[in-house]
Design brief:
The mean pLDDT is 97. The chain is built from 15 helices and 16 strands. It is globular, with a radius of gyration of 20 Å. α13 packs across α14 and α14 packs antiparallel against α15. It starts with a strand and ends with a helix. With 369 residues, the protein is α/β, with parallel strands linked by helices. The chain has an 8-stranded parallel sheet with strand order 4-14-13-12-11-10-6-5. It has a 3-stranded antiparallel sheet with strand order 1-2-3. β15 and β16 form a beta hairpin. It binds zinc ion (ZN). The site of zinc ion has 8 residues, from α12 and α14.
Length: 369
């Protein structure tokens, strides 16, 4: 198999696990966080800056690249790795999440989804076959199966119908997959219904995917419900494949996800909030536009090894935000991503040294949501 998960150590007290993910562009340590590069760029950062902070895999969005500049163009440019000059891992989503979020702007059929481009209003179509073909054009190490993300709340009949279709679409994705040098993950759905989650986990696990993602969580449900469904779902997933919880990226959810056996996460959260002036720290979040930082000459977080904290003060960063200087976005993006990547490394170390439960307890005790 072109993508292979190697389990290194399981925590004795929780579901947490440390492992290695072997891909065509390197072997990466799990649990991991994947920065999101929606438009073939992690906003405001260069690949070198991402290498320096220890990023391993970045995520790119098929929906956006499909509409602009087009996946044929990227294939002709030498595929996504060469186009964006990123030599490590790339995972692409299927575009499903974005087209299903369009509401009245899209029509779902068994064949696929018809929708209007947000760029020019043109009629577009995505299906399992179209999505996999687009992702093979991009040449991502890991393509994602085309699924339907069930909104929250959803009634049982809708969730059942949708989950069954996601299973049928998963088979079509497997059949559409032609590149033996690239891998693909399946996606478990089922909404907030345990019997549907179990059926979906069994259906998707029975297909020859290289890893399994848990979709349809972190879609507006309370955290306790998300953790409950997640814990239940991972019980039905095989031990020998990577597990990826989609769209989750706040530190509290990362710890709780790792504790339930998740290996991979992605989220726009750290980069998006950076552009709003929010710095992520162990105690929670800091609004860097706040007046209390006006004469604060400490780094964003004491002890942080990122370039921003090694170099600049809170007062300077606040000044940049107040002056609407672009450097503010870059500096806080660098810090937020470094913070999360280091946080994942710390969790991995804790699992390897049999201290994950202490790590989790200490972190949650000091963290304000
Ligand atoms: Zn920092």
């Amino acid at each position: 198999m072109v993508i292979r998960y190697e389990l290194i150590k399981e925590d004795k007290h929780t579901g947490a696990r440390a492992g290695l993910l072997h891909t065509p562009h390197g072997t990466f340590k799990t649990p991991m966080f994947m920065p999101v590069g929606t438009q073939a760029t992690v906003k405001t950062l260069t690949p070198n800056e991402l290498y320096e902070m220890g990023a391993q895999i970045v995520l790119s969005n098929t929906y956006h690249l499909f509409l602009r500049p087009g996946t044929d163009l990227i294939r002709d440019a030498g595929e996504l790795h060469r186009f964006m000059r990123w030599d490590k891992g790339i995972l692409t989503d299927s575009g499903g999440f974005q087209v299903f979020s369009l509401g009245a702007m899209r029509k779902i059929t068994e064949e696929g989804v018809y929708f209007r481009s947000f760029l020019d209003g043109s009629k577009q179509f995505l299906s399992p076959e179209v999505s996999i073909h687009a992702q093979e054009n991009l040449g991502s190490d890991i393509a994602m199966a085309f699924d339907e993300c069930i909104p929250y709340p959803a009634d049982y009949e809708y969730a059942k119908h949708s989950t069954e279709r996601t299973s049928r679409w998963a088979e079509r994705c497997i059949n559409a997959h032609t590149r033996t040098d690239r891998g693909m993950f399946g996606i478990v759905q089922g909404g907030m219904y345990k019997d549907l989650r179990k059926q979906s986990a069994l259906d998707i696990s029975s297909l020859p995917f290289d890893g399994l993602a848990i979709g349809g969580l972190s879609v507006g449900e309370p955290h306790d419900l998300m953790y409950d469904i997640l814990e239940y779902t991972t019980e039905w997933l095989p031990q020998d494949k990577a597990r990826y919880l989609m769209g989750v990226g706040t530190p509290d959810c990362l710890v709780e996800g790792v504790a339930r056996g998740v290996d991979m996460f992605d989220c726009v959260f750290p980069t998006r909030v950076a552009r709003n002036g929010m710095a992520m720290v162990h105690s929670g979040r800091m609004n860097m536009k706040n007046k209390k930082y006006e004469r604060d000459f400490a780094p964003l977080e004491e002890g942080c090894g990122c370039y921003t904290c090694q170099t600049f003060t809170r007062a300077y960063i606040r000044h940049l935000y107040k002056s609407e200087e672009l450097l503010a976005f870059r500096l806080v993006t660098i810090h937020n991503l470094y913070f999360l990547l280091q946080f994942m490394r710390d969790m991995r170390e804790a699992i390897l040294s049999d201290s994950f439960s202490d790590f989790r307890e200490n972190f949650m005790a000091g963290y304000v949501k």
